[in-house]
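Handoff note, outgoing to incoming analyst
You'll be picking up this chain. Sequence as last confirmed:
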Amino acid sequence: MPALPKPHVIMTKTRATGHDSGLPGARHIRSSRNDRPYHYMVHSQHFAYEEYALHLGQYDRLSFYGDVGARPVKVHMYDCRENSLEYDRKLEVDVPADGSSVLAIPPGYAHWFEDLGGVTTRNDYSILGPADPSSSWNPLEDNATYSVDSMRISRPKTIANSVELPTQAQFLISRAVSQSWRGGATERGVVATTTINGQLHRYFLDADLTSQHPELPTSQLATVTAEIGSYQHIRDDSFGIGSNISSGLADTMVLDIPTAWPDVFSSHPNLTLKLSALLYDNPEMELHLIDRRSDSPTFGDEQILPFPRDPRVVLTIAPGVLMRVRGTGTLHYRVEYEVHGSQGTKMPRLFEPVSSAALLPTYDAPGTPLGDDIVRELAYR
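Most recent structure output, in case you need it:
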């Protein structure tokens, strides 16, 4: 009987950024090479799981983020693969909630978490298909659950998938999920069918989340917008957070917010940034924004905008905007980005520091966005 993959823990890499970063002084926590799809789960303070989850095709790679001093997350796992040499073995591990470690859980391992209240989980997952092409496995319905009490009595037997799908196929599935969450969805939606003019149609019925949406800050700049992102409302007032860009790239950042305005702005001549907070309770922070894009109708205008504290809100900052921050506390945030081609040069300028005491630059309109594969190649470096 062949040995199958086992759960394991690896250390993340953290890089402190300087004045040419998205937000000066932020720490970039690398939980993956951005070559896999991802999503976040944002848990309220009173969130608690009551069941084990079991995937046949999803290979989870989990990192956890909480407030400074947050207790570790306790993970319970059972090997439910009937063809495993360690079938029915139970493992328990405490994973720090500071983003320093990634816990990998292969398909076929049931898992249950404790102490997730107030902690956000990032999952850099991969998707495996079944070895048997006649299998009825559906990647969009790959989540069986079992109560904690029932798992104490007996464990299910499964055959986990073993063939990793091509990268493009994995991101395609991830985009389909994120698209279905665009603007808000719930986990309790219903797929219904109806016959119209002799043809069978399937459609999705979901709750009206309009009254539950957070308030959006009002931008006065044409190059800065706030919107509801891709998210799924789950129980206990918690949220699954999906990707808002086609490449599916996202970086996890941590910033000890300066109380005074920094002396340097960050600018992004060829990047469109999408920023969102990551924890359920986030500190207050202000953004000082100046529109320096030459083709913008608000060129030269500036605004102090409160940074959205709700993780469902996404702030989009177009190329050519100067940005600096001030506030109190430590902010965990996500940055998604699109890379635009530059005018007449091979490598576009992504970040540029600008002294607040200097003559402010003017930026030309950027080129068209680069393809997803090219952007991923840049993200690997």
